[in-house]
Amino acid sequence: MDLLQRIEALSRLNGPSGHEDAVRAYIIRELPKKAEITVDPLGNIIAKLKGRNHPKNHIMLEAHMDEVGMIITGIEPNGLLRFAPLGGISPEALAGKRVTLENGAIGVIGIAPYHLATEEERNRYSKAENLLIDIGAKEKAEAERYAQPGDTAVFLSDFLHLGEKIKGKALDDRVGCALLLELANRELACDLTFVFTVQEEVGMRGAQAAAFTVAPDYALVVEATTASDLCGMEDEKKVCELGKGPVISFMDRATIYPSALYKTAMQTAEKLGIPAQTKTAVAGGNDSGAVHKSRGGVKTLAISLPCRYLHSPACVMDQRDLEPTLRLVEALAEEFAHA
Amino acid sequence: MFDLMDCLKRLCALPTPSGQEEAAMPLIEEYLAPLGAQIKTDRFGNLLAVFGRGKTFLDAHIDKLSLVVTGVHRSGFLRAAPVGRVDLRTLAASDLILLGKDRIPAVCASVPPHLRGETDASAVPKAEELLFDVGCADDILAKIEPGDRLLYRPAFYELGDGCVSSPYLDNSAGAAVLLLTASLLSKRGALTDLTFCFSAQEEAGLRGASPAVFDLRPNKAFVVDVSFANQPGASEVHTAAMGSGAMIGFSPVLDHELSRALRQLAKEENIPHSSEIMGSSTGTNADVISCTAGGRKTALLSVPIRNMHTPVEAVRLSDIQNTAALLALAIERGL
């Protein structure tokens, strides 16, 4: 299966934080037969693969399986569902969007019409707690046939090609999962441990448990990171740009990356002729935040893929960033293994 | 057998932004020509299906809310202006389709507030701040020109309990009422002297109805559109419950006797309905049709929908069926 098909397949799977089962089943199926796979109590996949040699350092490559979504908190007498966001969803990405419930039922996040809204209501996004999911039910008893409090939902959004870009839900971080699956299925230069984590979007919880169990010397986190490279945006506000290759961060809101690793990554990219960029803002965070503090500390680096409209139904990424990111991750894994 | 779900789905998928309604012609022809209608368009772009002398006028607008491309940037972003009252609160991260030399998928960019110079994270962007992302391959940009239209990407989903959701139930629901009404009347041999008008440019400001009426000079008119269904945030005074049937309009611009006769008929025949009381004009083609070219007695029937003018409008199919049932009976009884 080629990489794009794999990304599309992963984007279509539903796996909000804590409910990653479908994604986990897919990844386990797609990992090579020879992988030594364990699933830990939280649902993280830990897959050990042998390479041509057995290096002195234990390297962990990781990507998270979960996506942002909603959890049903209650059912109104009129059959509408109250919900809380799972993960950080900005308010503009909620009203007027379609969602898929756990049992496959489709709902919409409603909003009273513009025509009846006050000036204030027209100019402000509603807070999540004021929005409701409509599944077509007339009343509470009927709605209960489709959903129970504690059930989850995710955005419903088709996977599409926009020129050389791709658009879909959950590209954060199914693209990371797809890249690691691709690498795992190649002939490896050295032994590597591949980890696919749960619950990143609700506070890097899976990574905390997995990093303890794996106890790596080095970790490479493959993530999607926010790009604000919109038309008319000043360069310093773009954070990073689509189509300019993997993003190597020096710092984000959860991690100060070791400067030696940052420099090595930049030099390796240059040596291999891979386009690479850094994040021009200390923004966001990823599983590195949990991994680098694990046990007595893990030398950790995030290699990210730029992504527009990150926590929305319409993540947009550039196909041209995929292969360079994969090459850089592969090269760095080997480099750190022998460091 | 009239398949309402299929009919509605096909209407919702028509690429008919205001001013480009001709794309609906083959569908109208397919449904109404076999019933004996003469199909034509007028100079303005309204689509007409005329039976006999066509003196009773049934109207549903066939155009859809859209945006018009005002600028194309080589970085792969478009600027666009709304044509009609597009709900700006629901645009960000929505799927659209550009009708240019090709059909090109687009996404409305979600521009973070701090990058718009807003300190308040909940501020909705103004129309002129909107950006539409089409990727940036040169071969794609070469196919896009200012003046091209953006529509929401056709989507049609079944919700529970006979409800469906699509961006374009306004006014595919109304057009479906007309097509179903024609089918019902045909079975009863009552398709005489009727004009079915699928009017143009309603969303741009009720523009198509007036030329259509001027040409045809009908004696009487029934306008079918959508109106507000009950939902949180919408006052009950202005709305009808989903599933409560046809909304019968009462307004100074409508003919009071005709409105009352419709309500009486619905009561006698046990057709689910509600009364929609408006203090002034209706905001529909009825406002124009009632007073153009000498004027005529005009009634308004509306199908209740939720989330009007958003990508997730929702309707209950039974409300379309009941509106068509009432309209067909009113025509048959010569109201």
Instruction: Briefly note the CATH topology name of the largest domain in chain A.
Output: Aminopeptidase
Tell me what portion of residues of chain B adopts beta-strand conformation. 25-35%
Assign an overall shape of chain B.
globular
Low-confidence stretches of chain A: none
Major β-sheet annotation of chain A: 7 strands, mixed
The helix content of chain B, as a percent range, equals 10-25%
Radius of gyration of chain A equals 20 Å
Largest interface: A-B, 64 and 63 residues
Largest sheet of chain B: 11 strands, mixed
Give the count of helical stretches of chain A.
9
Q: Can you tell me the CATH class of the largest domain in chain A?
A: Alpha Beta
Shape of chain A: globular
Low-confidence stretches of chain B: none
CATH architecture classification name of the largest domain in chain B = 3-Layer(aba) Sandwich
Which structural class is indicated by helix and strand composition of chain A? alpha+beta
N-to-C terminal Cα separation of chain B, in Å? 26 Å
Tally of discrete structural domains of chain B: 2
Beta strand % of chain A = 15-25%
What this model shows, in words?
- The complex is a heterodimer of chains A (339) and B (335).
- Chain A is built from nine helices and 16 strands.
- Chain A has 339 residues and is an alpha+beta fold.
- Chain A has two domains: 3-67 and 169-337, Zn peptidases (Aminopeptidase, 3-Layer(aba) Sandwich), CATH 3.40.630; 69-155, Beta Barrel (Elongation Factor Tu (Ef-tu), domain 3), CATH 2.40.30.
- In chain A, the strands form three sheets. Chain A has a seven-stranded mixed beta sheet with strand order 1-2-12-3-13-15-14, sandwiched between helices. In chain A, strands 4-5-8-7-6-9 form a six-stranded antiparallel β-barrel.
- In chain A, β4 and β5 (81-86) form a beta hairpin.
- Chain B is an alpha+beta fold.
- Chain B folds into two domains: 4-64 and 168-332, Zn peptidases (Aminopeptidase, 3-Layer(aba) Sandwich), CATH 3.40.630.10; 66-152, Peptidase M42, domain 2 (Elongation Factor Tu (Ef-tu), domain 3, Beta Barrel), CATH 2.40.30.40.
- The longest helix of chain B is centred in the middle third of the chain and has 19 residues, at 169-187.
- At the A-B interface, β7, α3 and β10 of A face β7 and β10 of B.
